[in-house]
Amino acid sequence: MFAILVFAVTAAAEAQQWFEAVLACPKVSTPRGPSGSGVVIHVEGGTAWLLTAAHVVPHDRVQVEFTSRQAYPHAAWYGRHPTVVARWPQQDLALVRLGTGPRPVACLPLAPPWQRPKRFPQAAWSIGCGEADPAATLRGETIQAREFVERDGIDGGVFFWQTAAPPRQGRSGGPLLDARRQVIGIAVAARDGRGYYLHHDEILAALQQAGYGRFIPPNPSTQPATRQPPQPTPQP
Length: 236
Hints:
The chain has two helices and 14 strands; from the N terminus they run αββββββββββββββα. The chain has helices at 2-23, 200-209; strands at 27-29, 35-37, 39-44, 47-52, 63-66, 77-78, 80-88, 93-99, 122-128, 137-150, 157-163, 175-177, 183-191, 194-199. β10 and β11 (157-163) form a beta hairpin. The longest helix has 22 residues, at 2-23.
C-alpha cells in the first residue's frame, strides 16, 4: 500500500511539473501575420526572454499570450512591450524580450551542452500551440537522427533534429524537451512527413555569438573549485 501511495504522489508531482512546462510556452503572433509558439528560457527582474522561430515573428510588432494554472486553456495575460532583440534567419531562430511585471513566470532552461541526445532513436517531448488550440499542449516525440540540411539561397547549412512526426500548424517556435524538461530544440519545419527542430548546438552557438551566453548553463568542469574550510584536528 505504501509503495502504491508513493507512486501516486510521484506521478502527481511529475504531472504538475509537465503542466508548469506547458505554462512556459506562450502563443506568439504578429498583426496580420502567422501565429506560432515560443518558450521562456530566462527570467530576470520583471523581464523574460523567449525563443521562437524567426518565421513566426517576421515583424517587430509581436504579441505574446500566456495562460495560467487557473485560466488554462484561455488567455490569462500578455507580455508587456515584447521586442524581437535578435534574429538568426539561417537557423530560423529569434529571441524576444518582454516585460512580465511582478508575477511569477514559468521558465524552461536550455539543456547544458553535454546533455544533448547522442543516441537514436531518443524519446523527447514537444510543446506548442496548434492553430486550432487556445493554448499549448504537450506531445511525445521520437528523435530519429541529427541531420545537416543545406538551405536554398543560404550559404552553408544547419543541423536539425529529425523527428518521426511533423509539428502541427501553429506549433512552430515551440520547444523540443528532454526528460529533464530542458530545451534541446525549437520547432521550425516539416518535410516528407518528418519534423525538423533546430539542433541544440545551433541554439547555443547563436545565443553565445549574440552576447546572450548567460542563458546557457555553465559547464561544471570549467567552474572554479570551491575551497573547503580546514577541518579541525581531533583532540585526544
